[in-house]
Amino acid sequence: MKFRVVKSEAEWRAQLSPEQFAVCRQKATERPFTGRYNEHSAAGTYRCVCCGQPLFASRSKFNAGCGWPSFSLPLDEAAIAEETDRSHGMVRTEVMCSNCGAHLGHVFDDGPGPDGLRYCINSVSLDFEAAGKG
Ligand code: FE
Predict the structure, then answer these.
(1) Are 128 and 46 in contact (CB under 8 A)?
(2) Span 32-130: which CATH code?
Protein backbone atom coordinates (compact mmCIF):
# COMPACT_ATOMS: atom_id res chain seq x y z
CA MET A 1 0.00 0.00 0.00
CA LYS A 2 1.31 3.47 -0.88
CA PHE A 3 0.86 6.50 1.36
CA ARG A 4 1.43 10.21 0.73
CA VAL A 5 3.33 10.74 3.97
CA VAL A 6 6.40 8.50 4.07
CA LYS A 7 9.03 8.80 6.82
CA SER A 8 11.92 6.67 7.97
CA GLU A 9 11.76 4.70 11.20
CA ALA A 10 14.19 7.21 12.76
CA GLU A 11 11.97 10.13 11.75
CA TRP A 12 8.88 8.49 13.24
CA ARG A 13 10.74 7.62 16.44
CA ALA A 14 11.87 11.24 16.77
CA GLN A 15 8.35 12.56 16.23
CA LEU A 16 6.33 10.08 18.33
CA SER A 17 6.37 8.87 21.92
CA PRO A 18 7.55 5.26 22.39
CA GLU A 19 3.93 4.14 22.88
CA GLN A 20 2.71 6.04 19.82
CA PHE A 21 5.51 4.51 17.75
CA ALA A 22 4.72 0.98 18.98
CA VAL A 23 1.01 1.28 18.15
CA CYS A 24 1.03 3.44 15.02
CA ARG A 25 4.16 2.19 13.28
CA GLN A 26 4.51 -1.36 14.70
CA LYS A 27 0.81 -2.26 15.05
CA ALA A 28 0.82 -2.81 18.80
CA THR A 29 -2.42 -2.46 20.76
CA GLU A 30 -2.86 -0.30 23.85
CA ARG A 31 -4.16 -2.13 26.89
CA PRO A 32 -7.99 -1.95 27.10
CA PHE A 33 -9.56 0.68 29.37
CA THR A 34 -6.26 2.60 29.58
CA GLY A 35 -6.53 5.00 26.63
CA ARG A 36 -7.26 8.66 27.19
CA TYR A 37 -10.17 8.68 24.72
CA ASN A 38 -11.92 5.49 25.84
CA GLU A 39 -14.49 7.33 27.94
CA HIS A 40 -14.07 10.67 26.20
CA SER A 41 -17.34 12.20 24.95
CA ALA A 42 -16.55 15.85 24.11
CA ALA A 43 -17.67 17.23 20.74
CA GLY A 44 -14.96 17.51 18.13
CA THR A 45 -12.75 15.72 15.65
CA TYR A 46 -10.25 12.92 16.13
CA ARG A 47 -7.17 13.28 13.95
CA CYS A 48 -4.29 10.95 13.12
CA VAL A 49 -1.58 11.51 15.74
CA CYS A 50 1.10 10.91 13.11
CA CYS A 51 0.01 13.21 10.27
CA GLY A 52 -3.03 15.20 11.49
CA GLN A 53 -5.51 13.86 8.95
CA PRO A 54 -9.10 14.08 10.31
CA LEU A 55 -10.32 10.52 10.88
CA PHE A 56 -13.41 10.35 13.09
CA ALA A 57 -16.11 12.72 14.39
CA SER A 58 -17.29 12.65 17.99
CA ARG A 59 -20.90 12.22 16.78
CA SER A 60 -19.92 8.76 15.47
CA LYS A 61 -18.34 7.69 18.75
CA PHE A 62 -20.12 5.26 21.04
CA ASN A 63 -19.24 3.24 24.11
CA ALA A 64 -18.94 -0.39 23.06
CA GLY A 65 -17.71 -1.42 26.51
CA CYS A 66 -14.69 -3.06 24.90
CA GLY A 67 -12.09 -0.73 26.42
CA TRP A 68 -11.16 1.19 23.27
CA PRO A 69 -12.71 4.21 21.57
CA SER A 70 -15.34 2.93 19.14
CA PHE A 71 -16.85 4.66 16.13
CA SER A 72 -19.70 3.66 13.83
CA LEU A 73 -18.06 5.21 10.77
CA PRO A 74 -15.08 7.31 9.68
CA LEU A 75 -15.35 11.03 8.95
CA ASP A 76 -14.72 10.23 5.31
CA GLU A 77 -14.23 6.80 3.72
CA ALA A 78 -11.14 8.18 1.98
CA ALA A 79 -9.50 8.91 5.34
CA ILE A 80 -9.20 5.21 6.12
CA ALA A 81 -7.29 2.37 4.50
CA GLU A 82 -8.10 -1.25 5.27
CA GLU A 83 -6.13 -4.46 5.03
CA THR A 84 -6.75 -8.07 6.03
CA ASP A 85 -4.86 -8.92 9.22
CA ARG A 86 -4.21 -12.63 9.84
CA SER A 87 -2.06 -12.18 12.95
CA HIS A 88 -2.74 -13.79 16.36
CA GLY A 89 -4.70 -16.69 14.83
CA MET A 90 -7.59 -14.45 13.75
CA VAL A 91 -8.79 -12.92 10.53
CA ARG A 92 -9.54 -9.26 11.16
CA THR A 93 -9.73 -6.09 9.11
CA GLU A 94 -7.00 -3.66 10.07
CA VAL A 95 -7.77 0.07 9.86
CA MET A 96 -5.05 2.55 8.94
CA CYS A 97 -4.75 6.26 8.22
CA SER A 98 -4.91 6.56 4.41
CA ASN A 99 -2.47 9.47 4.44
CA CYS A 100 0.46 8.03 6.39
CA GLY A 101 -0.33 4.36 7.01
CA ALA A 102 -0.56 4.70 10.78
CA HIS A 103 -2.10 1.63 12.40
CA LEU A 104 -5.33 2.76 14.07
CA GLY A 105 -7.07 -0.46 15.08
CA HIS A 106 -9.59 -2.85 13.53
CA VAL A 107 -13.14 -2.71 12.18
CA PHE A 108 -15.71 -5.32 13.25
CA ASP A 109 -19.25 -6.01 12.05
CA ASP A 110 -20.96 -6.01 15.46
CA GLY A 111 -21.66 -2.29 15.75
CA PRO A 112 -25.04 -0.77 16.72
CA GLY A 113 -25.45 1.61 13.75
CA PRO A 114 -27.28 0.99 10.45
CA ASP A 115 -24.08 -0.28 8.82
CA GLY A 116 -23.34 -2.51 11.81
CA LEU A 117 -19.71 -1.41 11.86
CA ARG A 118 -17.56 -0.87 14.92
CA TYR A 119 -14.25 0.88 14.33
CA CYS A 120 -12.25 -0.15 17.39
CA ILE A 121 -9.42 2.38 17.59
CA ASN A 122 -6.41 2.89 19.86
CA SER A 123 -6.52 6.21 21.74
CA VAL A 124 -2.78 6.42 21.20
CA SER A 125 -3.30 6.73 17.44
CA LEU A 126 -5.61 9.72 17.85
CA ASP A 127 -5.35 13.42 18.65
CA PHE A 128 -8.59 15.15 19.68
CA GLU A 129 -9.52 18.60 18.48
CA ALA A 130 -12.47 20.15 20.33
CA ALA A 131 -15.28 21.61 18.21
CA GLY A 132 -15.18 25.35 17.71
CA LYS A 133 -11.41 25.60 17.81
CA GLY A 134 -9.50 27.06 14.88
FE1 FE B 1 -1.88 9.63 9.41
Answers:
(1) yes
(2) 2.170.150.20
**What is the distance in A from the centroid of ligand 1 to the CA of 37?**
17
Residues with CB under 5 A from ligand 1 (ion): 48, 50-51, 53, 97, 99-100, 102
pTM of model > 0.85:
yes
Catalytic sites, residue numbers: 120
List pLDDT tens digits, range 35-45: 999 999 999 99
Tens digits of residue pLDDT in 46-63: 999 999 999 999 999 999
